[in-house]
Specification:
Layout lengths: L4 H12 L2 E11 L21 E10 L2 E12 L3 E11 L9 H16 L2 E8 L21 H13 L5 E5 L5 H8 L5 E3 L2 H4 L1 H4 L14 H10 L19 H13 L3 H8 L12 E7 L23 H12 L6 H18 L7 E9 L15 E2 L13
Parallel strand pairs: 4-5, 6-7, 7-10
Antiparallel strand pairs: 1-2, 1-9, 2-3, 3-4, 5-8, 6-8
Helix pairs in contact: 1-2, 10-11
Protein name: histone acetyltransferase
GO biological process, one term: DNA damage response
Enzyme class: transferase
Length: 390
């Protein structure tokens, strides 16, 4: 029997989270569903994979303190996990349990599906992603764009993937290293540059289409453009053309563009080059990474504790329509949300662990004289910035 995500979360928190505290842990996993939006919409060579949506939330002192939403896509040869949203209210203790939440999802996915796992993150600073008005409560520390990239890097430092990459669009390698102080475990760039097999594939089958991701919006523009980045024109299909003909046209439009050109031009787009720092993080976990010894029973938990996608969206919307403007309001919103879950879901104790006890040594702070080690830097071909950015 495979441990549920809730069981893995509780165990890892009790074993690994520094300090002494008590948390309520909520984990919701939807059943597999098929989205209308294809993960690779511009190629017919990759079937549209099923998706699970995951919501993990933590509460302390009677109020929600942090939460993360992830989307899990199961392909034939790998699992892709996209971090959709992360947020905090400011009412919890430090350190954040977020790295343990992500680690638990990775562990659970590898055991459940016996596949390599890729973690994708797009990082952009915003006042609130999950907890409305939490930036106004006086306790929440809203991170600047550069602080958020550092927070993500520090959070992901606690994981042990096979390889990991980070990329700050619009910044040179030297500038990025100065901003984020990465170490030797990180590669500056993207996975496609350092993987010959990936680098040899076409753009349409390389870049997944995630929601609220500038890569997806850039793919849309390129796929619907009759002119390639190098000025070559492509005849558009007739208005009455079939769906297959339109997909073929868009695939041809994308596949004329190299992956190197795509990443270089992405840094010139307004949402990545408007004076604010955004970041991409990629982590690859092979099937052999980590001490996973549990028996493989694929999708065993689907029938046991997964909820319908419709119910997941209803519970998710109840949370994101709450108000965390004050501590009192946050307590009321938390109580109301947890009660709704208990009302809407049978066997709600499988989704809510109300008293997870943590009693571990405090985290040792890094000394001021610790010198950061420079990151691995990929050698890339330098190009002049184009006269006009796409």
């Amino acid at each position: 029997m495979i441990d549920s995500l809730q069981d893995i979360l509780n165990r890892k928190l009790e074993e690994r989270l520094p300090g002494k505290r008590s948390l309520t842990v909520i984990s919701l996993v939807s059943n597999f569903t098929q989205l209308k939006q294809h993960l690779f919409p511009f190629t017919s060579s990759i079937p549209n994979p099923p998706i699970k949506k995951i919501l993990i939330a933590f509460a302390e002192y009677d109020t929600l303190s942090s939460a993360i939403e992830l989307h899990l896509f199961k392909l034939n040869d790998r699992v892709l996990i996209y971090v959709s949203k992360v947020d905090s209210t400011g009412f919890g203790l430090t350190p954040s349990p977020m790295s343990i939440a992500i680690e638990s999802v990775i562990h659970w996915a590898k055991v459940a599906f016996n596949l390599q796992v890729w973690l994708h993150i797009f990082s952009r600073a915003q006042n609130a992603y999950i907890f409305p008005n939490s930036e106004k409560n006086g306790k929440k520390r809203v991170l600047s764009d550069m602080q958020l990239q550092r927070w993500w890097k520090q959070t992901l430092d606690n994981l042990t993937p096979f390889k990991r990459w980070l990329f700050l669009p619009g910044f040179s390698q030297e500038e990025a290293i100065g901003i984020i102080k990465v170490d030797n475990d990180w590669i500056y760039g993207n996975p496609h540059q350092s993987n010959q097999e990936l680098n040899s594939r076409n753009l349409s089958s390389l870049i997944p289409y995630f929601e609220d991701d500038p890569k997806s919006r850039f793919l849309d523009e390129l796929a619907n453009s009759a002119e390639a980045l190098d000025g070559r024109s492509l005849k558009k299909p007739r208005r009455e053309s079939s769906k297959e003909e339109n997909v073929s046209y868009k695939q041809n439009a994308l596949d004329r563009i190299s992956i190197e050109e795509f990443w270089e031009r992405l840094g010139y787009r307004q949402e990545c080059a408007s004076g604010r720092v955004t970041g991409f993080f990629f982590l690859h976990f092979s099937r052999e990474d980590g001490p996973i010894k549990e028996a493989i029973e694929v999708n065993k938990t689907d029938q046991d504790i997964d909820i319908s996608i419709e119910l997941f969206h209803r519970i998710h919307d109840l949370l994101t329509n709450s108000d965390f403007h004050t501590f009192e309001g946050a307590v009321s919103a938390t109580s109301s949300w947890l009660n709704k879950i208990r009302t809407l879901i049978d066997n709600s104790q499988a989704y809510i662990a109300p008293n997870v006890k943590v009693d571990n040594p405090e985290k040792v702070k890094a000394t001021a004289d610790t010198e950061p080690v420079k990151a691995q830097v990929l050698t890339v071909r330098k190009k002049k910035r184009p006269a006009s950015a796409v």
